Amino acid sequence: MSPASLGLPPSLFDLELDAAVQYVGHAVRDEKKALPSTIFEYDFSRYATGLIFVVVLSSDRFSPVLPCLANFARASTIRGNISPTVAIICPVDHKLESYDSGPNLRSYSWPARLPPATKENFPTPMAHTTLAPQGGVLRAASKNEHRYITRHALGFYRALTMTGLYTLDLDTGLSTSESSEYVDMTIPDTYIPALKWCIAAHPILRTGIQGQDGEEPVFVRAPKMDLRRHVRVDCSIMDGGVNLDGKSEVEALRRVLLREHDEGFEGVENVPPWRVVVAPLPVSDIDGYQRNDARRKAKAYIIFAYSHSHGDGRSGLVFHRAFLEGLRGAHRVYDKGYEYATTIDHQGSVSEVEYQLPPPLEEACALRITWSYLLLTLFGAHLPAFVSRWFGFQTPAVTEGTWTGEVMMHDSESFRTGAAILIVEERRLDTVLKTCREKGGARFTGLLNQLVVRALSGALSAHTFASEASVNNFIGQIVIDLRRLVPAYSDDMMVNCVSAASECSPRVPDDQDEDLRNNAAFWDAVRQTTLRLARSSSTLVDQPIGLLRYLDKFRPWFLEKLGKRRDSSYEISNAVVFDPSPGHKSTSVESNNRKEEVKMDWNIERMVMSQPANVTGCPLSFSVVTRKGGDMALTLNWQVGVLGIEDEDGFAEDVLKRIDGLLAGIAGV
């Protein structure tokens, strides 16, 4: 829509107005049916100061619009959902005094110039956003959720993934289409009933985000859900051929995951930020399905990609448990239509489906911060060691010898995620866990931390010129789950309920032939790490996540980090054990007021957790998840270009190879 088509003289579009529009954000041109027959140009974005409208009215029929805007401003403030500022630009001969209602409605006339386009008048440009339906605000985002939301909006951390290797046994009978013979794993329709099952079970999946670019984001009801925006099939693995061995299969999955990690979520006000990607595996028999142990099975990796604002790593497991239940029985309850209803039509009266989100962590429990912990957090790096010991804390601080990769950086054009995946077979894992129990006081996460330190120590020597003098220690951030300390949360909720514990470890000599199984000093270090993690995960006092209460503005906080050194070397996130159906051989669903037994033709053989590049986080992220009675997957992720190593893929493969070798030595297999 041009100025001429609006009937506006070019003088209106002078530099001042153009600068104002640039500050406000992306111009949106549309005919607003809700406003009576008026052609106008408008632009709106969500800011810390409220929702700002810039409206250019071009017709003598504009007068009915003004009461609408004025009433909207007043009603929105009274309702408490938003506090908008409405700026109207219109011909000078039109009178606006009667509608100028103070701070919520500002009017400007042309050809008089607009106020100078300063940061105070028009804050930093934000992405286009739309209003939620009336009454659509569920609750404000907490500080922790706000951090995740802003990080995603900036493109600093995009799609977190939890992947399951799903199998469909074609010889057991009942499945999603009544006959297993006709289940097609390559079309989205197959998965629609299961998606509806998950959405019904977990309200966060039908929840969007309003104001992700400002400092007061809120969770809102999605006005409607078109499930075609949330599910797709990626046949790239299947098209690669039929002779994939285990290693090739994992490599093919890695390539799919990289694409998903770097694809963010758009239009989150109306489209909840998550999606399911189905990657079927190659077929190998005449019927179009793989044969496995004389039984016919179809297989597919099913990836749940989601914004961290909608759940932590364990929430991904919760989703897959519900999705598996849905595949086994949701076809008896839901159809394959792509629309998920968010309203109810009762005798001609349409109303929204009412639901509530679980409370955020900060409201579900008391994250108390002591003055001593706050003091050490703010000034710990500058305090003498005896002062830290006197306070009773030994929070690791980065020194000149800490390996932290390159400084924090972000270039949207070259921003990419790196990934490497290690599969540890069940037999080896069981032996390692048995050894941990035999050593007493040792748990797997504590063991993995020490293995990571040894692997990094050796790999840095092999891939860089970093001597032990220049790099002599590592700081790890180990994610801890606080669910068991929060009575308001159950294990089947999708929430954000994690914090972290820091662990500083010295670099060790590169000795791949070392007998760790009988190394007393090594197991002492494992036990010490295990003990510190147990202490950190048993209290809500002085959790790092609780410090977010002291932060007011997240966007500048993230942006100010760019160009600065990182505060740690790596992260370990262990989503522990996934049991798809604990203690059950079958499941039941309600259908037409009767229970029907559903056979377990769908199953999950393996889980894989993987994280996107994290601009302001650790240079390396290790993610672990184990399928009960199955393999463990260890994924290593990083932001391409920040490791300070020329061959980053080779380095990552070497790190995982060293960890695998150390596990083999401990297990003796």
Structure overview:
- By secondary structure, the chain is an alpha+beta fold.
- The chain folds into three domains: 101 residues; 194 residues, Chloramphenicol Acetyltransferase, CATH 3.30.559; 252 residues, Chloramphenicol Acetyltransferase, CATH 3.30.559.30.
- The protein contains 14 helices and 26 strands.
- The strands form seven sheets. Strands 7, 11, 12, 13, 14 and 24 form a six-stranded mixed β-sheet that branches. It has a six-stranded mixed β-sheet with strand order 18-26-25-21-19-20, sandwiched between helices. Strands 1-2-3-4-5 form a five-stranded mixed β-sheet.
- Strand 16 and strand 17 form a beta hairpin.
- Helix 4 crosses helix 6 and helix 10 packs across helix 14.
- The longest helix has 20 residues.
- It is globular.
- 43% of the residues are buried.
- Taking the alpha carbons of the first and last residues, their distance comes to 70 Å
> Strand percentage, roughly?
15-25%
Q: How large is the radius of gyration?
A: 28 Å
Domain unit count: 3
Sheet with most strands: 6 strands, mixed
CATH architecture of the largest domain: 2-Layer Sandwich
Which shape, going by the Cα principal axes?
globular
Identify the quaternary structure here.
single chain
Return the CATH topology of the largest domain.
Answer: Chloramphenicol Acetyltransferase
Q: pLDDT below 50 for ≥5 consecutive residues: which ranges? A: 1-86, 89-135, 173-181, 285-294, 386-391, 583-598
GO molecular function: N-acetyltransferase activity
InterPro entries: Alcohol_O-acetyltransferase (IPR052058), Atf2/Sli1-like (IPR010828), CAT-like_dom_sf (IPR023213)
Protein name: Alcohol acetyltransferase
Organism: Aspergillus mulundensis
